[in-house]
Amino acid sequence: VSSLCRSYTLDNDVLTEEQRQFYEDNGYLLIKKLVSDEDIERFREEFVRICRREVRPPGAMIMKNESLRSQYGQSEKAVNKVQDFQEDKELFRYCTLPEV
């Protein structure tokens, strides 16, 4: 194990050295099956509802990739980010999962 400069992670017994280094190098870490398929489906459905403006959490911002508009129109497939969604009870539940 090399002594690499770490600026984003702290020593811990949760992540492997390889996971920590991947996060340091790339800024994200994918851990498959961390959240149940059932929860993922519920979060996906709520995301789609927000994108379609069926629900409107106060303060939420929907960011669209305009280059995808010709391909997907106004569908959720053109949305690349929903931010400030903390007022949406279901979607914010993701942030409070013990696994996360």
TrEMBL record:
SUPFAM superfamilies: Clavaminate synthase-like (SSF51197). One of its GO terms (biological process) is fatty acid alpha-oxidation. Belongs to the PhyH family. Its EC number is 1.14.11.18. One of its GO terms (molecular function) is phytanoyl-CoA dioxygenase activity. This is phytanoyl-CoA dioxygenase. It comes from Indicator maculatus (spotted honeyguide). It is an enzyme of class 1 (oxidoreductase). InterPro entries: PhyH, Phytyl_CoA_dOase-like.
